[in-house]
Amino acid sequence: MRGGIDLGGTKIQTAVVGDGGKVVADARRPTPTSGGPEDVAAQMAEAMRESAEGANVETGSLEGVGVGSPGDVDEKTGDVSGARNLPEWEESFPLAETLSKALGAEVRVGNDVQVAVNAEKKLGAGRPYDSFLGVFWGTGVGGGVILDGKEWLGRGAAGEIGHMVIKLGGARCTCGRRGCMEAYAGRGAMEIEARKEHDKGTKTELFKIMRKKGHVRLTSGIWERALDDGDRLAEKLIDRAVKALAAGIASAVNLLDVEAVVIGGGLGVRFGDPYVKKISKHMHKHLFVDDNPPAMHVAELGDFGGAIGASLLFGEN
Amino acid sequence: MRGGIDLGGTKIQTAVVGDGGKVVADARRPTPTSGGPEDVAAQMAEAMRESAEGANVETGSLEGVGVGSPGDVDEKTGDVSGARNLPEWEESFPLAETLSKALGAEVRVGNDVQVAVNAEKKLGAGRPYDSFLGVFWGTGVGGGVILDGKEWLGRGAAGEIGHMVIKLGGARCTCGRRGCMEAYAGRGAMEIEARKEHDKGTKTELFKIMRKKGHVRLTSGIWERALDDGDRLAEKLIDRAVKALAAGIASAVNLLDVEAVVIGGGLGVRFGDPYVKKISKHMHKHLFVDDNPPAMHVAELGDFGGAIGASLLFGEN
Questions:
Q1: Which part of chain B has CATH 3.30.420.40?
Q2: Which of these, A81, B197, B244, B317, has the minimum number of CB atoms within 10 Å of its CB?
Q3: Do B247 and A145 touch (CB under 8 A)?
Q4: Which stretches of chain A score pLDDT less than 50?
Q5: How near does any CA of chain A get to the CA of B306, in Å?
Q6: CA angle, B23 as apex, B18 and B26 as ends, to 5°?
Q7: Is the predicted ipTM greater than 0.95, yes or no?
Q8: Which CATH superfamily is domain A2-115+305-311 in?
């Protein structure tokens, strides 16, 4: 058995994973919003221990623990820097070393999106395809490009579908640039916009639901609840996000003509099929070859894709 | 020696090509704007004959004549359909068969952008790179994606960089969709916009220069001349095109992280280095990894890239 940790901007998801990607036990915690890398690593270790307890194993007896991390990951050392959705994590931090000490197990760190897209390729919705686009709709919008059966990394930084320009001169993105897809579709950007509207007096239940649930951020569950309640601001911002995703994905499809698109991430998995259909519908308007659209799927491994993919850093192969 | 014909929306460029892509003789004519495929094919044959005369050969003694064509090309039969920038060319037309009869030579037809990007890969600015993006800035904006040393075609329709969405809800494209890069940067779309402004009373020399040169379309040379004369409308529309190209190319680079971008096409080659620098400058604002931009080049084979690439359909390999 292997451990897998998906370090997200909103939550830390851990799992103990058996052969064939089977999740034996899992645990999750909110990602700390203050402090620094040490505090995040401590929460990661706690959540991993909780998973191990659930699976009745010691973390030290796992074959290894894989981590999918945002930011710049040095896969050789397991150091991580520039994780801009995490607190005070600009400088390089020895994540693998710190977790290895805390867990008594070997730890490997990979890019969060790359491990998740790899999991969908090997065990999930991407299995039937030689080429597909993985789109991870969460705090940010990450992407993975599978071509000829393997991930295309370019010079190491490919897949930034969230920063494709879908509206020249448009909204300010959390990355500082303008008009990126993520500036409309990322949950981080959506929350900033919701707070702005709320401060201006626009009526919304979003922040009431947030407080009631004891959260400090607008999680995917809060957005879903607000939609269920017919919250107008939530509907408006989700609709805007869907159209932005559709335009960015269509651009990528026009450029690469892949066989399929797999949509995951916190919001993607939470909203599932009905929203993949909505994205698909809006995407269709922008497809240059509109009689041969790609197949559209929700990420099959759901919320566990990142953790399962991270566990695959200790390969079965 | 081989023949090569580049069938563009504005002009037909032919060449007799020797080993190593050397142009022995060439000829060009405007693409007919009325009539149908037969008329276009007749002009192509005439222009090819003129090239052959210049090289002191009979067309019948050429190893073969390659054609780079817009629209849907059936490479096996040499039939072409759906060439929307050409007159009355929706239905399938037997281009290879027609030209073969007229020239007494074997004729092969390939996709115009694919043959041009292949020429830049084998003989031009793309030679040093394993991955690059070819951007052909002309009547439309075509693209070619070279990854791992070969062209990525997806399911056959990859490379439509001109129809990446750069402005959601933006200008109407000649393809009928909204906000495509080509809706701002394609010479076809630019001409429509210039005519609209001219009809509204905006002052411009563009159409005076066109009439003086005896043209019915705003060719690359006319745009260049208007810029040299400080024409405000020409400046405005070219600036808009540059920003659109920059946004679309940046999106593609954020997705694929290629080593280089090669800019060709009628306008790309005509405007050359100073405009590649402008595109580069605006692109930089949108690059997610902005400390590692791709190398930027003008297509090295210039105006002949399409014809040389077409001649390579009769391979040296």
A1: 2-115+305-311, 127-300
A2: B317
A3: no
A4: 317
A5: 20
A6: 125
A7: no
A8: ATPase, nucleotide binding domain (3.30.420.40)
Alpha-carbon distance of B196 to B125, in angstroms, equals 37
Distance between CA atoms of residues B233 and B303, nearest Å = 26
CA pair distance A294, B165, nearest whole angstrom: 17
CATH number of B127-300: 3.30.420.40
CATH of domain A129-300: 3.30.420.40
Give the span between the Cα atoms of B141 and B29, in whole angstroms.
Answer: 21
pLDDT in tens, B224-260: 999 999 999 999 999 999 999 999 999 999 999 999 9
- Among all residues of chain B, which has the CA nearest to that of A135? B255
Residue B92 CA to residue B136 CA, distance in Å, equals 25
pLDDT at B311 > cutoff 90? yes
Phi/psi at A277 (nearest 5 deg)? -65, -40
**B213/chain A closest Cα distance in angstroms:** 35
Contact partners, residue A101, CB within 8 Å, separation at least 6: none
- pLDDT > 60? residue B263: yes
- The beta-carbon neighbor of A159 closest among B152, B251, B255 is B255
pTM of the model: 0.92
From the list A175, A178, A259, the residue facing B155 with the nearest CB is: A259
Structure tokens, A281: 């519908």
Q: Which of A155, A254, A258 minimises the CB distance to B163?
A: A254
Chain A residues with beta carbon closer than 8 angstroms to that of B158: 255-257
CB pairs under 8 A between A and B: 129
pLDDT in tens, A234-290: 999 999 999 999 999 999 999 999 999 999 998 999 999 999 999 999 999 999 999
Query: CA–CA separation, A154 vs A137, rounded Å?
Result: 22
Residue type, A154: G
Contact B143 A177 (CB under 8 A): no
Interface of B with A (CB under 8 A): 131, 143, 145, 147, 152-161, 163-168, 170, 175, 177-180, 243-244, 247-248, 250-252, 254-259, 285-286, 288-289, 292
**Residue B32 DSSP label:** P
Delimiting residues of CATH 3.30.420.40 domain(s) in chain A: 2-115+305-311, 129-300
Whole-number pLDDT of residue A317: 46
When the pLDDT of each residue in chain B is averaged and rounded to a whole number, the result is: 96
CA-nearest residue of chain A to B135?
A: A255
Q: What is the pLDDT of residue B238?
A: 98
Pair A80, A92: CB distance under 8 Å: yes
Which one-letter amino acid corresponds to residue A152? W
